[in-house]
Amino acid sequence: MKLTHQPPAWLRRVPRPPGGHALLAVFASPLAADSISQVLHNTTLWIIGILAGLATLMLTLGGVRYLMANGEIRLTMTPADADDTDKMVAAYLS
After folding, report:
1. Most exposed of 13, 60, 78, 81 (fewest Cβ within 10 Å)?
2. CA 76 – CA 56 distance, rounded (Å)
3. Are 39 and 33 in contact (CB under 8 A)?
């Protein structure tokens, strides 16, 4: 009985289709735009996507902070918090 070792599927080489290099010549400049309006449209989509991702990140961080605070929302510092902050700063600087 002969055992052959076969590499995992993610490591195997995928054969290329014949004439694949000719297909690359057809699409010589995939990043080129046809007009200024297309450039502005694509730029607008990129900016909206980045802002949507940033908004999602901030919403997630806000939710995590809310969960870590056990639902307690304080918008102002009390004098006891200010004293604790002064003590922490003094301990850090010493």
Report:
1. 13
2. 26
3. yes
Measure the CA–CA gap between 91 and 24, rounded to whole angstroms. Answer: 64
**Structure tokens that stand for 87 in this block:** 């003590």
Three-state DSSP class for residue 2:
coil
Six-digit token pair at 94?
């010493």
The pTM score is 0.46
Whether the CB-CB separation of 42 and 33 falls below 8 Å is answered with yes
- Identify the pLDDT of residue 76: 66
Q: How far is CA 72 from CA 36, 66, 67, 75, in A?
A: 51, 7, 9, 10
Which H or E run includes 51?
helix 36-68
- Cβ neighbors of 73 (< 8 A, separation 6 or more) are 66
